[in-house]
Amino acid sequence: MVNRMLAVACLGALIVGAAHAADPTAGKPLYGAWGFDQSGADTHTKPGNDFFRYANGTWLDHTPIPADKPAVSLRLAMSDLTEQRLHDIMEAAANGHEPATTLEGKVGAFYQSFMDSAHIDALGAKPIAPQLDAVRHATTRDAQAALMGRTNTDFEGSLFSVNFDIDLKDTKRYTVYLSQAGLGLPDRDYYLKPEFAKQKAAYQAYVTRLLTLAGWPQPDAAAKDVVAFETAIALANLSKVEQRDPVAMYNPMSLAELEKLAPGFAWKDFLKASQLGDLNNVVVMEKPAFPKLTALYAKTPVGTIQAWQAARIADDAAYYLSQPFQDAYFEMHNKTLAGQQQIEARWKRGVHAVSGGDCGVNDRLSCFGNLGWGVGQLYTAKYFPASSKAKIEELVANLKAAYRVRIEKLDWMGPQTRQEALRKLDTYTIKVGYPDHPRDYSNVAMRNDDLTGNVLRAAQADWSFYVNRLHGPVDRSDWTMTPQTNDAYNGSLRDIVFPAAILQPPMFDPNADPAINYGAIGGVIGHELTHGFDDEGRKIDADGALRDWWAPADAKAFDERAKKLGAQYDAFEPLPGVHINGDLTMGENIADLGGLTLALDAYRASLHGKPAPVIDGLTGDQRVFLGWAQAWRGKLTDDAIRRQVTSDPHSPRTFRVNGPVRNIDGWYQAFDVQSGDKLYLDSKDRVRIW
């Protein structure tokens, strides 16, 4: 469970959608005759008015969101295909004869334990009885603080999270980062803003339901106290926009200094329970929040803290408990907060429980208590072709070359900053498919009749992996995203990682027209490359250290351009009265603009001076833009959009297309966009960063 406080630069957490199967040996693209599904476009819409709809409108009009999903898209279809493949792997493992001492046997036993719903339902709340008893017997705040230290290995919640990452001031070693936590809703705004009053009320009812199922006394009154406590936590916490400043988020201090900064909390007991009892130094992230949180803790009645912890335990464990718990969890997290109308089939939930997902997203289910790295070994052994790895590495080389050319020619960057930028670009390592070194699960016991035990044993194994290497050398080959994750990221190791699962259509199709691949996966590669130079990434130097290596004039020029881009996104309105937060989404918006710009340059360079072929009347440049637009083809429920705009640093998909293209001169030329078109920007108003 690595923090990646500055390094997470992924494309966005993905939700499963409708799937298609692709055969890379068939010789035909999955979508359309050359990689783009023209039947899904809406050519009645002018590209200059709404390019997202021009590329995707007919598909949007005729593709409903499934009842068991909060979204549907081509990109999400990739996840569905991966999910089906993982299902096949787990079914074979569960029905095979491998002993539970082998990796296949462990995966099979874990999956079997989730699928045995009759046994799970018969247990009711018994699997969390030990945790609830511990909460009841922890009658002091110090004892409760110790319970919070178990949050990475058990179901307990905490006011503070503990994670590991590279020390940004000493990049040859790891360090421990402490950050604010404690909320059950996705963001502090859900507690504090009136537009989320309905969700907050539903959450209080959900807490009541959980405490009732858990056998907690006076659940109605306790739930009221819990939500009031979390509202006070929300008031103390920094906003997600404030958390985007890496300099402000890096505050190294000794344990004595931490105790002085944030008194009233048993830090030593907390760290000891986190298996970090010998720790003397930490990095505090949201420093202004810490004294507020410990002051709140010191004055909150122990009974309220106990009820809050009981609710956190029930919420974190609900996914693995009896049907009433799972139904309550679905109604709150999936239906109320995301607009999903129907719970997924049990086998799909089982696949997610065993496989996990991207630990970079704020989703405990994705990065807690699973065999994700082991499942990744089984997945890539069966489904990841070496040919895809070679083609992606070639694309990456072309995108890096295009980026180098752009940096060398930037009219707003001075020679000193330019030299450092080029040096940083050269340090990037590209990782494709899967890690070089498999994770060792030989000492992790899995049973087919003990689901919550499997979850906790897997969580302990994962946590031990990071604790045991804390004082060792930094592993440059490390990954923080499993191979079966449909995403990509720019890491704190100055690495750009493309897991196997993202290398599928429409992101990458080995049989598609190269222009489509450049627009889609090329845009993704460029997106990740530019993250190292966005408003956060530019504060990290070529050695991976937190250092201001920009000349003041260059930094000012960059900030002016970034602010201009932020204002454009602030004006976008995904739903009536709901605007994108240009500050929250700044890094991702810059990366989208930079990525698509680089993809176009790299495609042109790949032609080696020859004219691009015209296919179905479409030029090469047009197909690059259409490849990017198709990669984001999809839609979300209104509730999912509200949640995304509030808590996600990625803009909704419509604006991941319309936002970048209107700032790229080549798009205007490719589609003859003129003054008067809705997306038109005068040349002087277009933002050009990379």
What would you note in describing this structure?
By secondary structure, the protein is of the alpha/beta class. It folds into two domains: about 50-85 and about 370-435 and about 445-685, Collagenase (Catalytic Domain), CATH 3.40.390.10; about 125-320, Neutral endopeptidase, domain 2 (Orthogonal Bundle), CATH 1.10.1380. The protein is built from 27 helices and nine strands. A four-stranded mixed beta sheet has the order 2-3-5-4. A three-stranded mixed beta sheet has the order 6-8-7, with helices on one face. Strands 1-9 form a two-stranded antiparallel sheet. Strand 7 (about 490) and strand 8 (about 495-500) form a beta hairpin. The model is unreliable at about 1-10 and about 15-25 (pLDDT under 50).
How is the secondary structure organized here?
Elements: H1 51-62, E1 71-73, H2 74-95, H3 103-115, H4 117-123, H5 129-137, H6 141-148, E2 160-167, E3 170-180, H7 189-192, H8 197-213, H9 219-236, E4 251-254, H10 255-261, H11 267-273, E5 281-284, H12 289-299, H13 302-317, H14 323-336, H15 346-355, H16 364-367, H17 372-383, H18 386-409, H19 415-427, E6 429-433, H20 451-468, E7 489-490, E8 495-499, H21 514-531, H22 552-570, H23 586-606, H24 620-631, E9 634-636, H25 638-647, H26 653-661, H27 665-671
Parallel strand pairs: 3-5, 6-8
Antiparallel strand pairs: 1-9, 2-3, 4-5, 7-8
Helix pairs in contact: 2-3, 2-15, 3-15, 5-13, 6-11, 8-9, 8-14, 9-13, 18-19, 18-21, 18-23, 21-23, 21-24, 23-24, 23-26
